[in-house]
């Protein structure tokens, strides 16, 4: 997840799609799906067999809530940076790109914070 966000934050619009965007879009779901599967298996294996389903359901609910909050915060960062960057033309591609980059840097910061909290 960190690599995909980091690549997209450093992406340049004049580069080919295959140079950065494809690699980032390819790496992001692999990391997210891998972490979700491994975490779900580890958490459910710590509970007795008769409560493993409940443990998996609770983990899924917390994971989905975290994704929803993370997406909302990322959209908020992108919109605020775009709105505050240029009061003249906040819908120009250059201004929108600045907001998108800020959102990807925010994702990098969230990933690093979650890694630090995990350690």
Please compute the radius of gyration using only Cα atoms.
Answer: 18 Å
Strand content: under 5%
Low-confidence stretches: none
Broad structural category = mainly alpha
Overall 3D shape: elongated
The total number of structural domains is: 1
What does this 3D model show about the protein?
The chain has one domain. Helix content is 78%, strand content 0%. The chain has helices spanning 2-9, 21-45, 52-85, 93-118. α2 (21-45) runs antiparallel to α3. The two termini are 17 Å apart. The model has no long low-confidence stretch (mean pLDDT 87).
Write the layout of secondary structure elements.
Elements: H1 2-9, H2 21-45, H3 52-85, H4 93-118
List keywords for this structure.
mainly alpha
Short note summarizing the structure:
The protein is an all-alpha fold. Helix content is 78%, strand content 0%.
């Amino acid at each position: 997840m960190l690599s995909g966000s980091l690549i997209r934050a450093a992406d340049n619009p004049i580069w080919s799609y295959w140079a950065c965007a494809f690699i980032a879009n390819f790496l992001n779901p692999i990391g997210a799906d891998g972490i979700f599967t491994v975490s779900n298996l580890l958490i459910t294996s710590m509970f007795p067999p008769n409560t493993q389903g409940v443990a998996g359901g609770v983990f899924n609910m917390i994971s989905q809530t975290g994704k929803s909050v993370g997406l909302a915060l990322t959209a908020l960062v992108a919109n605020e940076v775009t709105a505050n960057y240029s009061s003249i033309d906040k819908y120009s591609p250059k201004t929108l790109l600045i907001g998108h980059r800020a959102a990807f840097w925010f994702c990098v910061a969230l990933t690093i914070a979650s890694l630090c909290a995990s350690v």
